Amino acid sequence: MSSEKNVNSPDSKGGGDLPVDVSNQKLTKLPNWVYNSHALSMLNAKNNKLHRLGKKMFKLTRLTHLNLRNNNLKKLTRGSRLGIDKLTSLRYLDLGQNMLSRVPANIAHLARLDSLSIDHNHLTQVR
Amino acid sequence: MTKSPRELQFLIIYFYQLPREIVTGLSKLQILHVDYNNIGPTLFSATKSRDSFEEDFSSEDDEEEQTVPNQAIMAASGEIFDISTCWGSTLRHLSVSWNRIVVCPDGLSRLASLTYLDLSHNQLRELPDDIGNLNMLQTLIASSNPIEALPSTFHKLQNSLQTLHLDYNRLYFIPPQVYQLTKLVELKLNNNLIGEIGHNISQLTSLKVLHLNDNRVRYIPFEITTLPVVQNAVVDVATGIPLTDINQHDIHSILSMSEDTLSHSNEASFAVHLEGNPLEDQIPREVIKLGNAAVISFVRSINQSKAKWRRVKLMFVGEENVGKSTLLRIFTSKFSSDSAISNSAQGTNSDPGLSSTTSVLNLLGSSSVPAIPVSLSAEIPTTRDLNKKVTMRDLSNLADKNKATDGIKIYDWLPEMDEEITSTLSPELLEDLSKYPLVYSCWDFAGQDVYVLLPYMVILTYLLIIL
Questions:
Q1: Is position B407 within any domain?
Q2: Which residue of B has its CA nearest to A84?
């Protein structure tokens, strides 16, 4: 997607401890530089068009704040071995306004989480 | 191919429930927002989640599935899942609005740190019995549920609760527990079936916002005007003067104020909202139209101007030359030759509520003047007394001195007290009557047809017709 180019990296090697803000960009996937620093602690990707999370996302194990509000996410995992539960440092997780139909039980492994938002989703099942 | 509804044999809808692992795993969770989903009938599943991973149960997930206990066995064991076992001291903020929750989660009232709870737009019939144990709770939003009553422990929230929203429920009255919530700052009860505001509303001394739109309130108690917020909020922006000062003794000043002044200055920010209630019995429509500030000012002025004004309007209507003015003179003792008559015509109205009554003596037959039944109140001499004392001779004498009335003559008649009557009254009432005497305002109409209908046209309510 061309809009990816509009998002400038804060520096060539990623933000380190700096928060990364890629919100409001109409992104369908996150730019690669976001994943450059494994030390990244805060990632704000709200108000985009992400429909799934890239594998590299689950390697950002230092993330404490993750905002994915208002995207098009239907799932949080990429196969059972790569799930949101890998982000064990998370304290703040905002998944509001997506298209999730379930809350993965492995979210329960985020033992440090103190704020969880899953409002405005499709948490319902019709069988 | 999709099946048309006619072919559809059965459709089972499983509403979603949050996996209970969230509670057991996220032991440090302080804030949980799951609004605007389709969660129900309970917030959490009673059993361990069958799908620990959201992927379908193929390939790699096999080992995970084996650890999941059989759902049926779990359900049959009747295990109660208590959210307070893990979140009892951590969870501060729980927001589950716009779901399909029918039953509050077990242990909800044991979340000792909970300060904010939003249960609005669900299908809850009741709140947990022991909700009063949430002694940190500052905000409770439970609008849009079919709640009919609050649990008896609710008053125990009085040390913490500041905001309570119960709009769009099925409350037939303001629950008595609410009056004990002295810390309450904001109370919203719009769109219920509430018929009454209790006098003890004055106990809510911290209240800054009171919404009671679209209920069935017929009467606003004076106590509502003692709420501090009302005292301060009613200010006429045009003049900067608190309406309380203007209107303390003069109801008419509210009415004389332009609608714009009132609606634009006060309505938007006014703290008490009472639109959509049948207040017409208590408050004139003209005042209701001016909005909430005017309504409250009206209630206040009605109660603060304690001076009683005992006036009865006596309107005499009838054909010409039948003795209307003559009869009136008998009553008012303007014709002073017969003191017995004047005394007998004295009446006293012991009921202040009757003081706004207007009586129309409609004299239609010329021959029946003495037999006119006059009974304005119980204390007024009976017709028999009148008959005894007003003889036909007196009447003819009176008629001789009578002149045709020109237009309308209006004068006040302050009847003297007859001992026969005063002896039957209580001393308190007598003293009150001496302070605020009963005055009859006599309207003596001329006999033209045009006047006959006038009282009906001018006065629509409180009209007592004596034929």
A1: yes
A2: B53
